[in-house]
Structure formats: C-alpha cells, structure tokens
Amino acid sequence: MLQHALARFSAVKQMQLSPLSAIALVFLSAIFSGTVIFALYAIVGPLNPDSGAGVPDWTPPALTAVELSAPKLASADVESLSRPIFSKNRKPQRKTDSASAWSASLSNAPTDLIVTAIVRHKKAAQAFLFSAGSPQGAWRKVGDAVDAWTVASITSAEVILQSGVQSAKVKLYKPPLAPHETQP
Predict the structure, then answer these.
(1) Closest by Cα among 125, 109, 122, 123 to 171
(2) Given 15, 68, 123, 146, which residue has the most CB atoms within 10 angstroms?
(3) Are the beta carbons of 107 and 101 closer than 8 angstroms?
(4) 3-class secondary structure, 47
(5) Model pLDDT for residues 122-179, shown as the tens digit of each residue
(6) What phi and psi, each to the nearest 5 degrees, are found at residue 133?
(7) Strand spans (E) along the chain
(8) pLDDT by residue (tens digit) across 67-83?
(9) Domain residue spans in the chain?
C-alpha cells in the first residue's frame, strides 16, 4: 500500500504540479468521490432493508382552527367617525368651551337637522340633509322645505334656513379648535 502511495506521489511529481495545484486536485477529487457515493446511496438505498431509512418520519403540520371573534361594526368605531373627512386638521375634536359656544350660537337652529354634504356646481348648490322628516337623508336645493324650515341659501360651509322671520345656520363642520386647545 505504501508503494502504491509512493507511485502516485511520483506520478504527481512527473506532472510537475505546484503544491497548491496538487492540494486543489486532491480537494476536487474528494468532493467528486463524495458526490458519487451520495448518488449511489440515493439510487440504491441502504444495504440493510430493516433500517427503515426508506420511510420518512415527517408528517405535514396540522392546521389548528382558531375561533375568531366577530368583526366590529363600522359604526362602533366612534373615534374614526368623529373626525371630519375633509378637514385640514383630522385630529379628534375635544368637547370644550368653544364647542359649547358654537352650540349656543346655533340655539335657534333645528336640533334634528344635520348637514352631511354640500355640492356646488357653477351657480347651483345642493346640500344633503338628515332631518326628522327624512331620516334616510335627501338632497335639498334653495327653496326646498325641510320640516318647518325653508332652505334660504347654501354656502360652501353652511346651510341657512328660514321659518317666517327666524333664520338659522346649520354648519357642515364645527369650527376649528383654538391653538391652545389642540392636542400635543
């Protein structure tokens, strides 16, 4: 065996390989030999038929059914619904003295009337109003009757109503908070 190794070593010397090339050649031949052994083992299989290597122990993971809670209704999200969509300041509005002053200024306005949208196109304007007479809401123009009130004018931010000599303004949005009242 020693003579065989010496014969190979002399064959490498005859090829005139540098030591680094010889190391690379030995490394590549070891990798090739390992690959051949692995391929034969994969094709032929183990030599012992009782080894159980042909039967995998792996089983697919079981899905666990988790009971999900019922989804929240959109109307239950009071915080998001309290923010005006098209306001420059989309922070929730706090109940403050300015809000009560705003409410007091509209004390003669009908309490059950809510303006949710105002659309202006050229010279025509319409407002979508909810009232006791139309709880599902309706589009109203200048001159239309809403409960005991008549729509006198529609601006970009409010609807002005008249009932005889009384007039009331119903605003689309609450006035913005004063700078010292904003949240940090």
Answers:
(1) 109
(2) 146
(3) no
(4) coil
(5) 888 999 988 877 888 889 899 988 888 889 999 888 899 888 888 888 888 877 666 6
(6) -75, -25
(7) 114-121, 124-130, 138-140, 145-146, 149-154, 158-163, 166-171
(8) 777 777 877 777 777 76
(9) 2-50, 105-172
